[in-house]
Amino acid sequence: MDAAASSGTSGIRIEPIAAAHIDSFHHALDVVAREKKYLSMLEATPLPQTREFVMAMIAKGNPQFVATAQDQVVGWCDISRHFFPSHAHRGKLGMGILPAYRGKGLGRMLIETTLRAAQKSGFAKVELDVYEDNARAIALYEKMGFVREGIVRRAARIDGRFIDAISMALLFDERGAAAIAANS
């Protein structure tokens, strides 16, 4: 399921994560986490925990895709299905892109691919939380059809500063199509 790249993403492939990507994914996760702007974690979990997470995502059939350039992970998007059976129709989206690859349409490519896989996997709702000061991500999620469901006050505390988050969600209808049309 490789996606050919557009002009700004020439040479980048979107593909399902595999065991061979884990070390590079771990590095990319750590780079984005250490920016202390976008993720809840401030550094990547230790490599064995990252490996366990990825292998569990693969085993469970949860959608997880990576963007690679020269066989190195430069971005990712995944949806983790909720654990409880009564919530298993819902999943939580997480994503990140290395700084040098932002603003080129890669986020849209990753999220479109991951949402298509979520539809095929029977998800009815995809949720996410995004820090309120991350305007670029909020705009992308809204273009993809996510709507704001609420505010999580003081969702994070980074370097002594509280940050609110916006809870957003995308609903699929019974046919698996987005219930809210994306502004393409």
Automatic annotation (TrEMBL):
Annotated ranges, domain N-acetyltransferase: 12-173
SUPFAM superfamilies, sorted: Acyl-CoA N-acyltransferases (Nat) (SSF55729)
Superkingdom in the source lineage: Bacteria
PANTHER family listed in its UniProt record: L-AMINO ACID N-ACETYLTRANSFERASE, PUTATIVE-RELATED
Stated name of the protein: GNAT family N-acetyltransferase
